[in-house]
Protein 1
Amino acid sequence: MSCITKHYLNEFSVVGVWKIEEDISTLLKMAVLDAEDRKRYREFRSNSRKLEFLSVRALLSELLGNEARIVYNKNNKPFIKDGSHFISISHSFRLTAIMLSTNEQVGIDLEYMNANIGAFASKFINRREKVVKDPVKSRYHLYLHWCAKEALYKICDKEGISIKHNIIIEPFEPEDSGQIKGRVKTKNIDLSFDLFYSRYENYAIVWTKKKIL
């Protein structure tokens, strides 16, 4: 199906989403791989991981053109090789998302809502955070908290951040789309963020962007 949406947030930033309906051979023809990409690709054993990797490259070409390349730092955080954009990547089940910006750091996370997330909510929800009691809404609400925290973890790119204790999501009522307030606070960081979320079929998607010195 290839790229299902390009959402331009402003003249500097865009979110692209790819729905994986192709097989590996088809995606190999669509993705533009250099020598380093091919080396990384050969290391993957599972077909699902190969599909994720190829869909990221295909989506990147859709957003920035065939010359764009992804490189990684020691923490496996992705960067655009020529330094033209900040980038954040997420994938879950059959969706892949990329967020790009020329002037702000970015973070995006998406999750396919198929797990009993309530069973391990205590691992990432802290006492300051509130989840609705309605059993129908609470599962989605928890996924939004998780995605928001993952997006903030990615944008800060700092070691030693606890998802549960150092990232706080302010109370909000879950809708199909909306805005969330979040904060990252450690001994060395104290930053507030505006995050935006949406629901696509059975996926929760959250993204944020900010100039961070």
Protein 2
Amino acid sequence: MRTLSPAGAVTSETHPQATSGWLPSGRAGARFQVASPLAVRGAAYASARLPTLNELYRSFTVFPVTTLANPALTPERLRGAEAGFELVAARRLSLTATLFTSRLADAVANVTVGTNLRQRRNVAAIVSRGAEIEGRWSFPHGSLAASWTGYRARVQSSDALDGKRPAQTPDHAASATLTYSPATTVDVSGTVRRTGRAFEDDLNVDALPPATTADAVVRWRFAPRLAVELRAENIGNVRALTRNQRGSIDLGTPRTLWVALSAR
């Protein structure tokens, strides 16, 4: 790794030690059709992830916090299992539900090591357990689809991080989309999304409050190959924080209106 000054002169140069090894990964699952509308399924899996070059060697600053790289990072190792069912009734209603549990050993996290200073480090593990539910109802000229995910993710560590929620991990997320086509040339859809409370940092100090946003789209095909589309994002102009570092914040998309003409 070489660091250059603004003038192009080499200010530092390091040669990390080469490493090698083997990490297993795999997945096994089964699905059983209990009856015509109902099926149950389950799976178990194991995988691994190598630290990226950025995590190993590239430090960065997002005001006011600097995050240091760490060439000593080791690979993450995931073990998990899930079980659930699928229900399809009269081809108009479908419902799936899944319970899951996983343990990510040696998870790479941005760990606070000083005032406005973090470093990428391996924590002992992140354990996650939760449920996912998805449903869809079809009716003449339209459909309604909804999903919900709720989970409890916690860090396992021998230091202050033990029991903390991983950064940028909400406790739940949900969405619902209604589509309607009153005519062959018109499509209308609306989506509502809900994201639960999360934290920006590993110590769970800088909160990202929950937020609910709504979008809508209207598409009109007024000619065989021409269509006009009206799109509205974040209709309620909700103030949704996507980053919060000691009061330095980023906000999600504000109320935005789009008009587009497409040709096919």
Protein 3
Amino acid sequence: MHKLEIEVGQDLFKKNKEEADQNLTLLRQHNVRAFDIMGSIGSGKTSIIEKVVPLLKHKGLQVGAIAGDVVGEDDYVRMKALDIPVINLNTGTECHLDAHLVRHAIERLPLDELDILFIENVGNMVCPTDFELGTDARIVVVSVTEGDDVVNKHPMIFRVSNMGVINKIDLAEAVGASVPRMVNDMSQIAPYVKQILMSVKTGQGIREFADELLKC
């Protein structure tokens, strides 16, 4: 059972940050590069992982994953099919992963055999923002199907991220979404964030995404 003990009066975010720093130290001791993948349900987080893992394997890299969801194991099953070590994390009622929960998952992974670790956060554009997990980079994925105002409506998640993926751009015309507006909104909100335009269906942006991971 997930149990995090915090003394009365202790800052929850401060405690999480301390544990996140410990997670990052542990991962770096094992030379594992980790990525927190955030975004709404249906934005394409799992699909991107499915597409990029074979590319990373082709480069000779060993990949692992943590699948975060409120309940169920749908994403876990999809990642397991990639023939990589995967841990399923169900939060129960929480709309985000936290560093303490992730630490328990990390301890169950063969860290000495991994180069890359994907941590797919719970599908939400708000809750994960304040809870670092202990990764080298945080990546937010949005889809044009969420509306071209999705970036402007959720500024904080972009401000804490290192990379922003605008996914399903092949559907932009069909859903009446303006990709340039999304690009501009992200540039205004977080100009330092690396932007990638992507279509998992056509493959656009997948190789660029894989290359950017190795620069983080």
Protein 4
Amino acid sequence: MSKFLKKALTASWFHGLVYHLIRLYALTFRLTVENEKEWMTYLQSGGRVLLCAWHQQFFSAIRYFKTYQDYAPGLMISRSADGEFIAGVAARSGWRPVRGSSSKGGRSAALAVISHLKETGLAGHVVDGPTGPFGKVKAGLIRIALGADAVIVPFYVSADRAWYFRSWDRFFIPKPFARVTLTYDHIIPIHEPEPENDFEAQRQHVEDTMAKWLKLPDQNVKRQD
């Protein structure tokens, strides 16, 4: 990575530029949002909601997630240089970045997200980020939900045409004027594990629920059972 690019990734002006370019680009999407009312009703009635997604799919939601800025939602983002860039973009969407990941600073970041969730009622989480493995929901998601007494609501993005990157997560970006669907799954309640192996059962249930919506380059529509 060049010195210029390293400096740009941490520069506020660059974060702002990229954020506005993303918003302009996303305006070309023919966006449909499905099943938002269920969890919004729960949130507005005093519940706590932890939205979660696969790393490969968060790009398409950046513009729409500006609509939640009044809730000042929290979001855990890694302490890497790439994370610094993502945190800058997220902050311009009204989200409150908390720095840390499963590989570095994860415990303190998780505690900060739990505290934030208790205060505002809303947070987001990338279930397999920042480095995978692909299709694996990490245990931190369940720990945060338990600590904040929050429900989990997965969301997914599908597009009728998209570009796919050769990255660990098969990251994709919808092509201009693509039909893009942002789908919220049903609320998943999380309870204190008893017996002890119930924790893993809950993590596996979330993973199995979300796995049907992972996408590969030859799949232009959402997966079905």
